[in-house]
Write a structure and sequence with these properties.
mainly beta; Immunoglobulin-like; three-stranded antiparallel β-sheet; 12 strands; elongated
Length: 178
């Protein structure tokens, strides 16, 4: 399986939503792995319930991939504006669109604070002060994007809104139609 498809499949199953969900997995005759919220003959039922945020200063990778529950809001760094403004929630992208990402942050990022980005629960590799970047071509699917600001000294964190967006690809049977 192509590494990008494997990454998408794993990330889709691990943290598509913050609520418990049932996902069905099956392999077609060509050996392609599929995931869906609809049952299919011979599909394996997978339960998901992992939140896509972390309040640990070490991040999810240091905890063996498991995500911790966020701390109460009173312990957060308390930005007056800490939200993802691009992409917008439920936005759809087509084909090879590059997806611009932007975090609105007020006041500016504080000293000893780091931003971590999560796409479908998996941490993205960007500098700790990245508030804008682009996501290149993504495979067809549904994506959930969130940002977390962590105070490196105290471990307190604040998590942005989670933005869900969709990527569609032209049909192989009718490539001119999106």
């Amino acid at each position: 399986m192509h590494p990008r498809k494997l990454w998408l499949a794993v990330s889709l199953v691990t943290a598509l939503t913050t609520q418990a969900a049932v996902v069905y997995k099956w392999v077609d005759a060509d050996g392609v792995v599929h995931y869906s919220d609809q049952a299919s003959p011979g599909a394996e039922k997978i339960y998901t319930s992992a939140p896509n945020v972390s309040s640990s200063p070490r991040g999810p990778a240091a905890m063996g991939g498991q995500l911790a529950r966020p701390k109460p809001a009173a312990a957060a760094p308390n930005y007056t504006d800490f939200s993802i403004t691009a992409p917008v929630n439920n936005q759809t992208f087509f084909g090879d669109d590059v997806i611009a990402v932007h975090l609105s942050l007020a006041p500016a990022l504080r000293m000893n604070h780091a931003i971590t980005w999560h796409l479908n629960g998996q941490q993205l590799e960007f500098p700790p002060d990245a508030i804008s970047f682009s996501l290149p071509h993504l495979d067809r699917g549904t994506y959930a994007l969130a940002a977390t600001d962590t105070d490196q000294q105290t471990g307190e964190s604040q998590t942005s809104n989670t933005v869900t967006f969709y990527v569609r690809q032209p049909s192989a049977l009718s490539p001119l139609h999106k």
